[in-house]
Amino acid sequence: MSVPDQTVRAPRSRAPARKARTVGKARRPLPSPTGASHPVSLKRLKSLAGYLIRQAQLWVFEDFNETLAPLDIRPVQYSILTVIRENPGLSQMALSQVLGIVRSGVVPLLDGLESRGLLKRTAHASDRRSHALRLTTDGNALLDRADVLVQQHENRLIQKVGRRGHKQLIEILKVFGKRDDRD
Amino acid sequence: MSVPDQTVRAPRSRAPARKARTVGKARRPLPSPTGASHPVSLKRLKSLAGYLIRQAQLWVFEDFNETLAPLDIRPVQYSILTVIRENPGLSQMALSQVLGIVRSGVVPLLDGLESRGLLKRTAHASDRRSHALRLTTDGNALLDRADVLVQQHENRLIQKVGRRGHKQLIEILKVFGKRDDRD
């Protein structure tokens, strides 16, 4: 299967010069990429939209995680909280389906958010084996703060691709956001 | 940090109906997503390009892995082989930089490809601590076969987003493909 994200990407800061200094080690200058005087060519990879989507996603995750670090909220946690707020009473199964998260993966994620007091599970009205998910007052408050930071993150993405590119991206990629939902 | 990809995404087939049948278990009909009669709303998430990029990337990885399964080549391995073919004699450090893979992550990846006889490391001409990377004859042959399958995968992406959308994607996202290289 795929290599976990955290082993794939070298840590990168939006302010690499500052970061390098804080590491406290003098770095010797890097040799030119090929060990010769030619720059490295990525012609083939850059012609593949799949490769560029992956690179964009790595940037998105890094920037999201840096931006949301003060709240300790990762992308998948933000998605869960947002979907529950938009659909109070949602079942775990529905959440798992709509976000494409395996059920065995969604349980520890919900456990974590519940133990932080951000959501609560109550017995489901129509299916006792299921749980109805709702944000707590704290969960709503945290999500309000998260929304502000997520907008900052999204604004950086707009800076990166331009306002027109950003609109086009949403239009082109919306086909991937469609799951079992019908809205 | 981010949750590894494999825990996040439920396995999905391009032919879910057929797959469900082969599982051999009668599935009871799923309750409606919220446990009520309303479809699940993802309005907020679908307004965020970052969310859609992630969803697109999950689709890309799944389709890539399914398509390349006969060759046992994952996206990161394909990227490595492609960059080495395009830049014979590349150093490990340059490879790591240009693909944004941490050095501790690149070594086992190269070990795996070398043990499959797909690439070889030779002492670097200008830096004895480094290695020069080259594809073997077998590596070149495998990459030729991989390229055919990757094109099939890319064609499915084109079907998904349309030919115009695909062109726009490459144009918009190329900003993320730029690293230390200067081509």
For the structure shown, list the relevant keywords.
homodimer; elongated; mainly alpha; 9 helices; 60% helix; 3-stranded antiparallel β-sheet; 183 residues
Tell me briefly what this model is.
Two copies of one chain form a homodimer. By secondary structure, chain A is mainly alpha-helical.
Could you describe the 3D structure shown?
Two copies of one chain form a homodimer. Chain A has nine helices and three strands. The two termini of chain A are 32 Å apart. The first copy, chain A, is mostly helical. The first copy, chain A, has helices spanning 5-8, 16-23, 43-46, 49-68, 75-86, 92-99, 103-115, 137-161, 163-177; strands at residues 90-91, 119-123, 131-135. At the A-B interface, helix 1, helix 3, helix 4, helix 5 and strand 1 of A face helix 1, helix 3, helix 4, helix 5 and strand 1 of B.
Radius of gyration of chain A: 20 Å
Strand order of the largest sheet of chain A: 1-3-2
Beta-strand percentage of chain A? 5-15%
In round numbers, the mean pLDDT of chain A is 82
State the share of residues found in helices of chain A, binned by percent.
55-70%
Most extensive interface between two protein chains, with residue counts: A-B, 98 and 98 residues
Terminal residue distance of chain A? 32 Å
What is the number of helices of chain A? 9
